[in-house]
Design goal:
5-stranded parallel β-sheet; 5 strands; 9 helices; 2 domains; Methyltransferase, Methionine Synthase (B12-binding Domains), Chain A, domain 1; binds cobalamin; alpha/beta; single chain; 214 residues; Rossmann fold
């Protein structure tokens, strides 16, 4: 069924993809497994786009399917809600980048795991992230970006947090399709995550599962 979901998306069969995802979720399949099957399809579509085998309308449709399915998966994630707030996290897609489907999944997962999450949205300027960090006092800042162009703004956020003396209290995690250890080193972030569960694992480690004060 998960493979069928991946195929329905890569074949741009919107109705079938959403119906299969709904069936899987209602039958108790782990929502993260459903999201992973969609992500596999997104990789295929991304590769086709790079190769000039499909174009912007297909990217838009694929993004739309992914969005619909992740919205359907969200309430299922929330069934595991831990009531206690673990700590504060700011999440943003960095300047120049408007991809938000993965970021939104990260936000839902953190939220479902008891974090107090402030989502700044997409195309967020460096200064906005730093100013918000001063006010919201998060333990963790999560930066998402799917474009190669996102690496420099990520680096700039880390540098600006450092300059403002905020880095000693804030850990930075980055994520998005192109992010790897090399990018982490380039940006100066503390870690990078391959999926939304990684974000939860890092945030829990850094906040020690403790309630945030201040
Ligand atoms: C859907 C899509 C779009 C949609 C986005 C809709 C939306 N609301 O997000 C639209 C059509 C708008 C779009 C636009 C563009 N796109 Co686009 N897009 C994609 C596509 C096919 C899927 C992205 C996606 O949603 N994946 C599914 C989600 C669930 O995965 P994810 O984002 O990776 O997130 C997961 C993990 O990475 C991780 N994660 C994500 N963030 C974070 C953060 C933290 C802290 C952590 C720990 C983890 C984490 O957890 C998530 C859940 O598991 C990708 C291909 C791909 N392989 O990703 C191309 C892709 C990202 N796009 C690409 C391009 C080129 C563009 C455009 C420039 C096209 C154009 N010419 O206009 C524009 C850019 C606009 C802009 N300024 O941002 C390229 C980027 C190449 C590059 N080297 O920069 C890609 C890779 C396609 C390709 N192979 O060419 N795109």
């Amino acid at each position: 069924m998960l493979q069928k979901l991946t195929t329905a998306i890569t074949e741009m069969n919107e109705k079938e993809a959403v119906a299969i995802a709904e069936k899987l979720l209602n039958n108790g399949t782990e929502p993260l497994e459903v999201i992973e099957a969609c992500q596999k399809a997104m990789e295929v579509i991304g590769r086709r786009f790079s190769a000039g085998e499909c174009f912007i309308p297909e990217l838009i449709l694929a993004g739309d399917m992914m969005k619909q399915i992740s919205e359907k998966a969200e309430p299922h994630l929330k069934q595991d809600v831990a009531v206690k707030k673990h700590g504060r996290v700011i999440i943003a897609t960095v300047e120049g980048d408007i991809h938000d489907i993965g970021k939104n999944i990260v936000v839902s997962m953190l939220d479902a795991n008891g974090f107090d999450v402030l989502d700044l949205g997409v195309d967020v300027p460096v200064a906005k992230i730093v100013e918000t960090a001063k006010e919201f006092k998060p333990s963790v800042v999560g930066l998402s970006g799917l474009l190669t162009l996102a690496f420099d703004p990520m680096k700039a956020v880390v540098a600006a947090l450092e300059e403002e003396g905020l880095r000693k209290n804030i850990k930075v995690m980055i994520g998005g399709g192109m992010i790897d250890e090399q990018v982490r080193q380039y940006t100066g972030a503390d870690t990078f995550g391959a999926n939304a569960m990684d974000a939860v694992i890092f945030a829990k480690k850094w906040t020690g599962g403790k309630q945030n004060v201040g």
